[in-house]
C-alpha cells in the first residue's frame, strides 16, 4: 500500500499564495500607477507611462477640486451616501428584527416580497422611477415651481435606500435569527421594552452584520453612475458623473494629470472606509459562515 506524497499540501499552499499574490498585484499595480500619474505634470505624459514623476505635482488635485468642480461633486456624493445609509438602516434594522422575531399574519408574504426584491436590478427600473418623479413634480408645480423630486440629492438618497432595503433586511434577518432568544428573554425579565431590547441587546450583537451591510451599501451608493446621472441632471452631480465630465474635458485638453487626480479622489474614500471596517467585516463574514 503506497502512501500519498507529503509534498501535496505544501504545493497546494504555494499555489494558493501565488494566486493570491498575483491577484493582489493585479489590483495594487493599477491603483499605484493612477496615484503616481496624478502627480505628474502635463509634459511627462508624452514619454513612457511607467516613468516616475520628476516632482510631486499636487497642483493637479487643487485644479480638480476647484476648476473641475470635483470638490462640489465630492460633497454631493458624501451627502447622498451618508443620508442613504442612515435611511436604509433606520428602516431595515427594525424591519429585520420584526421579521426575525415576531409572529404576525402575512409574515411569510413579507419575506417572499423581500426575497423577490433581491432579484430586481434597480438600473433596469431607473427610467420608470424617473418618469414617476417627473409626474410628481408636475403635480406639485404650483407649490414647487423649480421642482422638488428631480435634481434633489435627498431624493436620490431615498431611492438608494428604498432599492437596497430587500438585501439589507434579508441579511440582517438571517443574523438576528442566529442569535439565541435567551438574551431577549433575560432582558425582558429585567423589564426591558422591545425597543430597548432591539437597540441595547440585539443591535450590538449584530454589529458584524450591520458593518457588512454598511460596506456593501456604501460601495453601491458611492460607485453608482446610472441612477445619479438620471435623477440629478442639473449641476448637483455626484462624483462618478463628475468624473465622466472631467474625463471628457481633460481628454480633449490632454491634461491627464488632473484626470488621474479625479480618479484618486474617487478611489481614496473607498479604500479608507474598507481600511476602517475591514476587521469587523471579516468577523461578520466568518460568523455568518459558522452560524450558517
From TrEMBL:
Signal peptide: none annotated. It is a multi-pass membrane protein. Residues 74-277 form the ABC transmembrane type-1 domain. Its main location: membrane. It comes from the Bacteria. The chain crosses the membrane at residues 14-36, 73-100, 112-134, 154-176, 197-222, 259-277. SUPFAM superfamilies: MetI-like. Keywords: Cell membrane, Membrane, Transmembrane, Transmembrane helix, Transport. It is found in: Cell membrane. InterPro entries: BP-dep_ABC_trans_perm (IPR050901), MetI-like (IPR000515), MetI-like_sf (IPR035906). CDD domains: TM_PBP2. Belongs to the binding-protein-dependent transport system permease family. This is Carbohydrate ABC transporter permease.
Amino acid at each position: 500500500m503506497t502512501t500519498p506524497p507529503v509534498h501535496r499540501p505544501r504545493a497546494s499552499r504555494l499555489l494558493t499564495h501565488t494566486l493570491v499574490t498575483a491577484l493582489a498585484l493585479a489590483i495594487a499595480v493599477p491603483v499605484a500607477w493612477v496615484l503616481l500619474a496624478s502627480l505628474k505634470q502635463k509634459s511627462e505624459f508624452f514619454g513612457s507611462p511607467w516613468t516616475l514623476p520628476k516632482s510631486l505635482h499636487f497642483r493637479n488635485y487643487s485644479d480638480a477640486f476647484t476648476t473641475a468642480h470635483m470638490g462640489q461633486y465630492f460633497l454631493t456624493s458624501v451627502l447622498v451616501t451618508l443620508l442613504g445609509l442612515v435611511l436604509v438602516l433606520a428602516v431595515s434594522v427594525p424591519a429585520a428584527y420584526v421579521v426575525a422575531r415576531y409572529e404576525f399574519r402575512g409574515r411569510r408574504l413579507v419575506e417572499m416580497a423581500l426575497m423577490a426584491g433581491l432579484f430586481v436590478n434597480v438600473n433596469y427600473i431607473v427610467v420608470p422611477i424617473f418618469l414617476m418623479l417627473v409626474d410628481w413634480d408636475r403635480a406639485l408645480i404650483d407649490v414647487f415651481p423649480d421642482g422638488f423630486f428631480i435634481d434633489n440629492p435627498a431624493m436620490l438618497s431615498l431611492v438608494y435606500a428604498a432599492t437596497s432595503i430587500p438585501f439589507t433586511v434579508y441579511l440582517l434577518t438571517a443574523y438576528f435569527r442566529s442569535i439565541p432568544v435567551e438574551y431577549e428573554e433575560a432582558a425582558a425579565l429585567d423589564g426591558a421594552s422591545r425597543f430597548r431590547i432591539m437597540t441595547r441587546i440585539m443591535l450590538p450583537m449584530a454589529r458584524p452584520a450591520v458593518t457588512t451591510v454598511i460596506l456593501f451599501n456604501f460601495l453601491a451608493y458611492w460607485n453608482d453612475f446610472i441612477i445619479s446621472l438620471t435623477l440629478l441632471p442639473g449641476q448637483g452631480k455626484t462624483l462618478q458623473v463628475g468624473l465622466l465630465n472631467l474625463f471628457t474635458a481633460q481628454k480633449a485638453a490632454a491634461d491627464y494629470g488632473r484626470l488621474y487626480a479625479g480618479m484618486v479622489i474617487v478611489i481614496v474614500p473607498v479604500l479608507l472606509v474598507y481600511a476602517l471596517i475591514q476587521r469587523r467585516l471579516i468577523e461578520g463574514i466568518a460568523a455568518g459562515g459558522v452560524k450558517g
